[in-house]
TrEMBL record:
Domain called DUF7691: residue spans: 1-205
InterPro entries per UniProt: DUF7691 (IPR056108)
Full protein name: DUF7691 domain-containing protein
Pfam family, one: DUF7691
Top-level taxon of the source organism: Bacteria
Length: 206
């Protein structure tokens, strides 16, 4: 079974602050302008909804209001996807063709490639974690993680240090071409973020 990665360029702190903001105007805009998307999600998850999971809009409203959330762990995925929707609405979707679809431990393999280039400040595997803002309940899917502006600045500095070392030695770390391509895509994400003050990345694995 394959997985996908969705990465968004946005103001990380501002996006996290939408959780519990009680912004009913935002909810109204989403319902009025993205009703078809909500309906498609409800159709896709109709079996789970029939068994008590919240609808897409109900989950979104709970996230924006900071609760209440279902007591069932089996329904927690809806709140993760609701937070992903907020990220999609407030951020810009970044090209992810090196990661969608992917199988097995590909994210870990790319992390090893990053480390081979001296980049330890960020991790693509972190997008598989459950780093949802409190008080959202834990869910394995979708996984969620973020790269803050500080982490991105540090990672790019680490890469520049490695580039200088390679230029001096004339020897680059041996990496498979597909890993190099994925690492370059990650660096592209980070450079986009660095161009925008206070911007970082929030990613989801599903």
């Amino acid at each position: 079974m394959s997985s996908s990665l969705s990465v968004y360029l946005l103001d990380v702190a501002a996006t996290r602050a939408l959780v519990g903001s009680r912004d009913d105007q935002l909810l109204e805009v989403i319902r009025d302008n993205f009703g078809d998307d909500l309906a498609r999600d409800d159709d896709y998850f109709s079996h789970q909804i029939d068994n008590g999971a919240p609808t897409a809009y109900e989950a979104l409203r709970a996230v924006v209001h900071g609760g209440p959330f279902s007591d069932s762990e089996a329904h927690a995925f809806q709140y993760g996807y609701a937070y992903k929707r907020l990220c999609a609405l407030t951020g810009s979707f970044l090209d992810n063709d090196c990661f969608t679809p992917h199988r097995g431990d590909w994210l870990s393999v790319v992390d090893q490639g990053l480390k081979a280039l001296g980049i330890t400040a960020v991790s693509v595997e972190a997008f598989s974690h459950s780093d949802l803002p409190a008080p959202l309940p834990y869910t394995f899917t979708p996984g969620c993680g973020e790269w803050t502006p500080r982490q991105i600045a540090q990672a790019l500095e680490q890469f520049e240090h490695t580039k200088r070392a390679v230029d001096e030695s004339g020897q680059a770390p041996p990496l498979e071409p597909e890993v190099v391509e994925a690492v370059m895509q990650c660096l592209g994400w980070m450079r986009h973020a660095q161009e925008r003050p206070n911007f970082g990345l929030i990613g989801f694995r599903s």
